[in-house]
């Protein structure tokens, strides 16, 4: 049998990652106390979601126990937020007696999606397809690559034919820059089953891009985080996607120095869904109405097509906030419809394979 591969997220994780919930959160409080003592000028992103609720409670509890300096909290309003989220941000600030500054982007979600395009399936898929649309590279290069006996040579030839398109070539051909096949990683088109065939048979009639995230969250965050020693975020490995992949500068993904010279702390990185549920009950935390009343299991950007449950979640929101749902469909509607078409295509292909 082949040995199962596990990334450094699993093999190099700290000991507390395997503690039970009470001991794990005690260890996390110690980490927060240590880092806030070292870098007291800290800023924390608060989204109004469940992870943020756990994080702010941990930070504020730790601050009181160790008499630490206040942390700056910011909420990034993309321009498409549920009223439930905005109300919860206000209630949370009052609960802990802290200020949570609302930050708006220079280019809101409506303008950024009109200018660059809308997300589809995932940030990685969106970036790859955006490059394909912009570079106008034929999908047939993937067939050339697959049929080539010397794949490294074919990869070099494609690079010469399409200069400054390396990432798009790798994405379409499911390989790395050395020409080695990499069909099972997240950075290639077929990380979503049959996607290349689907795109070939059903070319998108709209622009695809995940730049709305850059303009509505990342750029405002970078702008306001300048001047702070440490940035605190609530990322968790259990969220999946790129958050479950090791970074070059830090294998444990809990604390690292960034290229800007700041430090980044991710206290919840090894907190599981089960750990979260325990802490919520233990600390008697109430999430926003988006969870407690509407029945959502996560919030994030309202209606973002990257969530496979986006359309279903919008139907849960509709009875309470119909205008937000209408706005989401106006912004992301083509991506919702295209994903539905892809899901149907994938199901048909899988059924055909099953019959064979």
Describe this structure in words.
With 356 residues, the chain is an alpha/beta fold. The protein has two domains: 8-112 and 211-293, Rossmann fold (3-Layer(aba) Sandwich); 121-201, no CATH class. Helices cover 50% and strands 6% of the residues. The chain has helices spanning 8-11, 21-38, 50-66, 83-96, 109-116, 123-135, 141-147, 151-161, 166-173, 195-201, 211-225, 273-283, 289-292, 310-317, 322-355, and strands spanning 42-45, 72-76, 100-103, 230-232, 255-257, 263-265. A six-stranded mixed sheet has the order 3-2-1-4-6-5, sandwiched between helices. The longest helix has 34 residues, at 322-355. The protein starts with 7 loop residues before the first helix and ends with a helix.
């Amino acid at each position: 049998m082949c040995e199962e591969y596990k990334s450094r997220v699993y093999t190099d994780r700290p000991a507390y990652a395997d503690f039970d919930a009470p001991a794990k959160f005690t260890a996390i409080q110690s980490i927060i106390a240590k880092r806030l003592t070292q870098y007291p000028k800290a800023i924390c992103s608060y989204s109004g979601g469940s992870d943020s609720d756990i994080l702010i409670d941990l930070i504020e509890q730790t601050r009181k126990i160790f008499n630490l300096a206040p942390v700056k909290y910011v909420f990034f309003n993309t321009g498409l937020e549920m009223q439930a989220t905005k109300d919860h941000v206000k209630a949370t600030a009052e609960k802990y007696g802290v200020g949570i500054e609302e930050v708006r982007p220079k280019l809101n979600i409506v303008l950024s999606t009109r200018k660059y395009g809308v997300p589809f399936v995932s940030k990685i898929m969106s970036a790859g397809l955006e490059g394909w649309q912009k570079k106008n590279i034929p999908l047939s290069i993937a067939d050339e690559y697959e049929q080539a006996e010397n794949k490294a040579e074919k990869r070099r030839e494609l690079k010469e034919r399409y200069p400054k398109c390396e990432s798009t070539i790798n994405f379409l051909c499911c390989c790395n820059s050395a020409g080695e096949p990499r069909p099972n990683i997240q950075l290639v088109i077929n990380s979503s089953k049959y996607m290349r065939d689907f795109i070939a048979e059903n070319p998108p009639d709209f622009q695809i891009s995940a730049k709305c995230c850059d303009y509505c969250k990342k750029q405002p965050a970078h702008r306001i985080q300048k001047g702070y020693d440490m940035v605190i975020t609530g990322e968790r490995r259990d969220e999946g996607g790129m958050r479950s992949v090791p970074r070059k500068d830090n294998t444990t993904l809990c604390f690292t120095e960034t290229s800007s010279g700041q430090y980044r702390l991710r206290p919840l990185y090894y907190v599981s869904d089960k750990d979260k549920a325990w802490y919520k009950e233990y600390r008697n935390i109430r999430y926003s109405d988006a969870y407690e009343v509407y029945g959502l299991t996560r919030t994030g950007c309202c209606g973002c097509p990257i969530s496979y449950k986006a359309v279903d979640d919008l139907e849960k929101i509709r009875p309470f906030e119909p205008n937000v749902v209408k706005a989401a469909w106006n912004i992301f509607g083509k991506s919702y419809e295209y994903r539905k078409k892809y899901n149907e295509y994938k199901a048909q292909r899988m059924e055909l394979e099953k019959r064979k």
